[in-house]
Design goal:
Elements lengths: L3 H10 L1 H25 L8 E5 L2 E4 H17 L4 E4 L12 E9 L1 H6 L5 E8 L2 E9 L4 E6 L4 E3 L2 E2 L12 E4 L8 H14 L2 E3 L4 H9 L5 E5 L3 H13 L3 E3 L13 E5 L4 H8 L7
Helix pairs in contact: 2-3, 6-7
Length: 281
């Protein structure tokens, strides 16, 4: 009898199988996106909980996550999960972990602002090998697998070619914890002075996807979790961009306090703007 762990490893490391796995994962994500879209406008005040100050969750987040965990458990048996809402699963010895945000931009969703997404990534240990961001209201599915490039609805995407930061459009976001605002305000003022424009959409996953496809030239944010950014990190790297923390370090970015992503051409200039903020303290 063949060892199940060996079967799992063979499934992942074979490039063609990884592409096939990504395609199947895209289908699962699209089904979940349809559920979220159908629930838009149906959530009442009694359906909403405040996880922490300013951080909201509804039954839509919870049920979507359950659907995703169930489907990905069937797609890739013995895999593990890191999820925003903590859906229970059977823990295994496998190194393969799905990293899931079932609804990134919950506040937008609850207010009827059409900017929210699903973010799904698969890692082997600390290495990201698959990523999907589904921009639900635009019906744009961004996806990638390690070494295979990045795509949106079947078309290959790439980061922008903007080389001057004064021509760049930069995206950002703000943490729920207000204690970081003073440091972030310092950065924002400098970016506003330097860049062509700044955008704040309310979904980190979409910010990263838009950077991967060249709509944004760069993006920075702090106090994110792995599920907010895992898929977007791989998208940008596969699209030709660079992702680091505010100090220029690319290693262990999922465990960093902050993220800076760009087309690569303006990365050093953005680092000069973000480094002064002492966000590790």
């Amino acid at each position: 009898m063949v060892n199940n762990n060996y079967q799992l490893q063979f499934w992942i490391v074979d490039k063609n199988k990884l592409e096939e796995l990504c395609c199947k994962a895209v289908g699962i994500t699209k089904d979940a996106a349809s559920f979220i879209k159908d629930e838009l406008g149906k959530v009442n005040a009694e359906h909403i909980q405040e996880k922490e100050k300013h951080s909201l969750v509804s039954y839509v987040d919870i049920e979507t996550e359950k659907k995703l965990v169930s489907a990905f458990s069937e797609l890739l048996p013995e895999s593990n999960f890191i999820t925003e809402e903590g859906t229970p699963f059977t823990k295994n010895e496998s190194a393969y972990v799905w990293i899931i945000d079932p609804l990134d931009g919950t506040t937008n969703f609850l207010k009827g602002i059409p900017v929210f997404s699903i973010s799904v990534a698969l890692s082997k240990g600390d290495e990201l090998i698959l990523g999907i961001v589904h921009d639900i209201m635009q019906d744009e599915c961004y996806y990638c697998w390690k070494g295979g490039g990045a795509y949106c609805n079947g078309k290959k995407i790439a980061v922008s070619e903007v080389g001057n930061i004064d021509e760049a459009v930069i995206a950002t976001g703000f943490p729920y914890q207000r204690k970081w605002m003073d440091n972030l305000t310092q950065i924002l003022i400098e970016v506003l002075k330097t860049a062509r424009g700044v955008r704040r959409l309310g979904s980190a996953a979409i910010d990263l996807a838009y950077t991967a496809c060249g709509r944004f030239d760069g993006y920075y944010e702090t106090r994110l979790n792995a599920w907010d950014m895992a898929a977007g990190i791989l998208l940008i790297r596969e699209a030709g961009g660079i992702v680091t923390n505010f100090h220029g370090q690319a290693e262990s970015i999922l465990h960093s306090h902050h993220i800076l992503a760009s087309n690569g051409r303006i990365h050093d200039k953005m680092l000069n703007l973000t480094r002064p903020a002492m966000l590790d303290q």
